[in-house]
C-alpha cells in the first residue's frame, strides 16, 4: 500500500503545474515591457549608449555599468599577477593582480562617455 501512495506523491511533485493561458481582464493595468517602454523613443550612438528624452524634457542615457569588464579584468589580472609573483605562495601577486585588473577592466568596459 505504501508503494502506490509513494509513487503518486512523487508523480505529483515532479509534474509541473500547467499555467493558465487566459487574457487579463479589460480593466487590468498593462504590465511588462510594452507598458514600461510605451512612448519612449531611443536613439543609440555608435558606442552603444542609448539616449532618450524624459517627460520633463531632460535627456537621459543608459550604458554598460562595467560588470563584464570587471569580471574579465579580475580573472586576467589574477593570472598575470600570479605569473609575475614567482616567490613564496604567490597569493599576494594574485590578489593585487585581480584588483588592478578589475579596476582597469571596469574602466575599459564603461567607456569615456558620462551620462548626465
TrEMBL record:
<protein>
    <recommendedName>
        <fullName>17 kDa surface antigen</fullName>
    </recommendedName>
</protein>
<dbReference type="GO" id="GO:0009279">
    <property type="term" value="C:cell outer membrane"/>
</dbReference>
<keyword id="KW-0449">Lipoprotein</keyword>
<keyword id="KW-0732">Signal</keyword>
<dbReference type="Pfam" id="PF05433">
    <property type="entry name" value="Rick_17kDa_Anti"/>
</dbReference>
<dbReference type="InterPro" id="IPR008816">
    <property type="entry name" value="Gly_zipper_2TM_dom"/>
</dbReference>
<feature type="signal peptide">
    <location>
        <begin position="1"/>
        <end position="22"/>
    </location>
</feature>
<comment type="similarity">
    <text>Belongs to the rickettsiale 17 kDa surface antigen family.</text>
</comment>
<feature type="domain" description="Glycine zipper 2TM">
    <location>
        <begin position="69"/>
        <end position="107"/>
    </location>
</feature>
